[in-house]
Amino acid sequence: MNFLKSQSLSLLSNSTKQDDILIKKLLLTHDPDGRWLDSETMLHAVGNIMFHASTTQGVPSLHFTSISKDDICEIELLGCDEPVGCVIRKISCMIMSKCSVEGDINSKTIALFDLLGNYRWDAKVVLVIAAFAAKYGEFWGLMQLYQCNALAVSVTRLKQLPMDLSSLKPRFKALSLLIKTMMEVAKCIIKFESLPLLYTEQDSDILHVTKFHIYIAVYWITRSIFTCFSQFTEFTTKRHEYSDSSILAAWELSSLAYRLSNINNILKGQADLCHQEIVRNLHNRLLSLTDNVQTDNQEFLTLLFPMKDYLPLKDCSTQENIGVSELKNKIVLLLISKPEQLTLEESLLLVQQTSDHPLNDELKDSYKIIWVPLPSSDGWIEAEETSFNILSEFLPWYAIRKPRLLSSAAVKYIKEELNYKEEPQMLVLDSNGRVINSNAIDMIKIWGPRAYPFSASKEAELWEDENLTMKLLIDDINLLLAYWVEEGKNLCIYGSDNLGWIRQFNGKIEELKRQGLQLEAIYVGTNQFSGHVKEIMKTLGNEYSPSNSLLFTKAQFFWLRLESMRRSRMRLGKTSSDQVLAELSALLDIKERNEGWVMIGRGNSSDSIRLQGRQIMECLDQYAEWGDNVEPLGLVGAIKNFLQPPIVEGPCSHSYLVPSSQAQIDGTVLCGVCKRPMKKYVVYE
Q: Which of 575, 603, 631, 572 is closest to 439 using CA atoms?
């Protein structure tokens, strides 16, 4: 690297007088605060035209060409009232007019920079390549169609274009090489221009040298485009029919490709040096912020999402580009994940528990969620970009506008300092940019907006007042279930993948309900989200009341929330001796799903019972023996009393004390010894 730096400095100091004059002319035409466009997207769209025209033996893919044209028309061009298509057409017309008259190519190139002066350097180079791509695509479109389309034949003859391309193969081979090289140099320029150069060191030699090579590269790409246009102009004058002319043209194109290739090699090295310097400075500044108290979150978020246009984020619901200033004085939740890790059902659950939750209306302006997708490796692959684009279309949160441009300093900081563990993580920052929870994703799945402000202390506080109740298990999943919970109804959730057993169980429940048993049974499937379970739910919806089974997506929510509850309890340091954690693990770790399981409870009461296998049907078959105890003991109490008979005959004098902070116990409490209802008294000490 040091050798490359010294070589570049030498080139700068030893640049020819002609280069110095050229740079001065280019800078005179350049507006440093000028217009910019989405150069990367446009170059990709233009590349589709160029690549498919260059690699299919002269027959381009019209499908790709049409897509690229649409993409270009949708690209935003900031600071300009004209659509980008009109700007490209204007550039193309100017180049064509210059090529049709005699004159020095250097003067023509500088004249074009007068038109491009209002654009950033990456925009200049992409616009001139796009202008050539339009001409290039038009030519190959005619070459493809003239053999089978009468109109194309007429247009080809009118334009006096060659019908036989065999003699032009060397020229097109050289042209393809030049196009490929120009695209590579353009990518390097775009990469450099997208860097947050604000974070380079003041008076950095590396930055000055790199900018010098950027100017030279843009000039030679623009000059090469003039040469390419001239090649197509020759087709109409039939000069290409002379072999000497064709050989000279191929040599000229190859020479330009060689020159640009050399420029690209140096430019890539310089851009890498700039990038390393920026990464180092950004990382150090992020670390320094961690040790100091901030007045707001702006500096931290600006460093975490440095973007040259200061609009690093987008509102996924409106696709509007936004800056970090929108997050001032707000709680910020960073949802960090790999794109393919954030499954559809998990995304839907998070949306339901945040944006779609009834309580969210009161808090929606107090916090914001930003999706920060990270690649699986050092670079983004097409599948990851597709996953991001699909998910970011429907998520109601904010997201990184261009994840591939996320600074490697930010990625390093997230992985090393914020302890990203290769799994979806929701980091919480308070309004001062201070981390108050390393991962709030589970508490949001469990409690939704009730977990605000989503701090680690709030999670511990919520569990202090929480037991494993029907309200906790199913309250946020379904509106009807939430209503039943509030009404205090006896509820039974059950699961199995055996349709025969499910029908037998439902038949028995219906029979007992006719005998006066008040119980609502809801099928929640299994923790294996299979197509078989989905078919069972569909069958139950047809054979019984729709309320008899959750929808498949809602059942997935049920099991995802159970997983989150278990992780949350374990994060608080709970062990297998914890009753809530033990019950959650028992539900999640059921191995035999054929005979089924049930859990019966009521509303917000912590009194519940879980039965499994043959025990379920045996208990229901003997309803006559315990049904009379439902009214005095409650349904759960009656079943417990039947399954676990009293240890002693008659009432006992057993008692126990409950601290006042835990005294809110709903329903009847049974004595653990004689299994009879206990009376409640208040004791003062």
A: 572
Does residue 246 contact residue 153 with C-beta atoms inside 8 Å? no
**pLDDT of the residue at 605:** 84
Cross-strand partners of 332 = 368, 429
Q: What is the mean pLDDT of the chain?
A: 79
Q: How far is the C-alpha of 304 from the C-alpha of 285, rounded, in Å?
A: 10
Q: What proportion of the chain, given as a percentage, has pLDDT over 70?
A: 75
Name the 3-class secondary structure at 274: helix
What pTM did the predictor assign?
0.75
Other Cβ atoms less than 10 A from the Cβ of 228: the count is 23
Whole-angstrom distance, CA of residue 126 vs CA of residue 71: 14
Other residues' Cβ atoms within 10 Å of the Cβ of residue 479: 9
- For residue 112, what are the CA distances in angstroms to 20, 93, 185, 216, 676? 19, 11, 19, 15, 95
Beta bridge partners of 610: 599
Here the tokens at position 684 are 């003062």
Cα–Cα distance, 134 to 88 (Å, whole number): 9
- Cβ neighbors of 336 (< 8 A, separation 6 or more) are 372, 374, 414, 418, 420, 424, 425, 426, 427
List 520's β-bridge partners, or say none. Answer: 491
Task: Using pLDDT thresholds of 50, 70 and 90, give the confidence band for residue 440.
Answer: very high
Angle at 171 between CA 244 and CA 57, to 5 degrees: 140
pLDDT in tens, 308-328: 667 889 998 888 889 889 999
Residue 8: DSSP 8-state? H
Q: For tokens 């506008």, what's the residue? A: 401
Task: Please report the DSSP string for 289-308 in residue order.
Answer: HHTS--SSSHHHHHHHS--T
Assign 552 to helix, strand or coil. helix
Q: Residue 579: CB partners within 8 Å, gap ≥ 6?
A: 468
Q: How far is CA 84 from the centre of its chain?
A: 28
Quick one: 446 exposed, middle or buried, by C-beta within 10 A (0-12, 13-18, 19+)?
buried
Beta bridge partners of 372: 336
With cut-offs at 50, 70 and 90, classify the pLDDT of residue 653. Answer: low
Residue pointed to by tokens 């799945």:
445
